[in-house]
Design goal:
Strand content: 5-15%
Number of helices: 8
Largest sheet: 2 strands, antiparallel
Number of strands: 4
Helix content: 40-55%
Order of helices and strands: EEHHHHHEEHHH
Distance between the termini: 20 Å
Strand order of the largest sheet: 1-2
Radius of gyration: 23 Å
């Protein structure tokens, strides 16, 4: 407490001014709706490093039926620099959902979209690789296509338009750039890139309508605790109190 002496010599006690407390983020309790977005940071870091390694080594992680174990890792790395740049930008834009939902729910969304998309991708390869259908599919392109497009479904419905404008009669907004970049990603290596994108959209819609109770599913508590205690301190930037030297 601060002590001030008035004109009459009487002491007046002033309330102490404490620095803003930064409470630790309890990821396992879903108490991380903060601006740091540690899960998004981790995804971006893994995507960046894995993509650079894949591009430099010229060994893309395309998903094939002859190597189904790649389903565990194919979503971690893009195969070209242009896809990496566009994908990283969109991942950066989608981090707002971790801020809104909390890190545990967003982490569960990432895990669900990855698992469901891998299953649907393998099913698509099985159906279209040796069928007599017009669409022939030999592989699924690598990279977090499913996560990006599943997130774009939530982005379309949950994020309002802030700056609507009309250019030559075309309705545009602050969201138009993200949609245009997503379209570029969808068309980057057709038809396989379109299939990967559509799978992500389907997963996003299923999550949106709570198909089979997907929104109620969450990562096991031991996974949340492990992430909170081991990985979170490495990814979460510590906010400095205002006025701190």
């Amino acid at each position: 407490h601060l002590h001030r002496t008035g004109k009459e010599g009487k002491g007046t006690t002033l309330p102490s001014v404490s620095s803003t407390e930064v409470k630790p983020c309890k990821w396992e309790r879903d108490e991380c709706p903060n601006a740091n977005a540690p899960v998004s940071k981790g995804i971006a870091l893994v995507t960046l490093l894995a993509s650079l390694a894949s591009i430099s080594s010229k060994h893309p992680l395309n998903l094939h039926l002859r190597n189904p174990l790649r389903a565990l890792v194919y979503q971690t790395a893009f195969s070209s620099a242009s896809e990496l740049i566009v994908g990283m930008f969109l991942l950066f834009q989608m981090r707002q959902f971790e801020r809104q939902w909390g890190s545990r729910r967003y982490g569960s969304f990432v895990a669900l979209s990855g698992a469901l998309s891998a299953s649907l991708s393998l099913s698509s390869l099985t159906i279209f690789s040796n069928s007599g259908l017009p669409l022939r599919l030999s592989s699924i392109p690598p990279g977090p296509y499913p996560l990006i497009f599943a997130s774009l479904v939530q982005y379309h419905f949950d994020v309002p338009v802030s700056f609507p404008v009309s250019v030559l009669g075309l309705p545009l907004s602050d969201k138009t750039l993200n949609y245009a970049l997503a379209l570029q990603l969808l068309l980057s290596s057709p038809p396989s890139s379109a299939v990967a994108s559509i799978i992500g959209i389907a997963v996003g819609i299923a999550y949106r309508i709570e198909f089979l109770g997907l929104r109620k599913l969450a990562l096991p508590s031991f996974v949340s605790t492990l992430f909170s205690r081991v990985f979170l301190p490495l990814l979460q930037a510590q906010a400095r109190p205002r006025g701190a030297g």
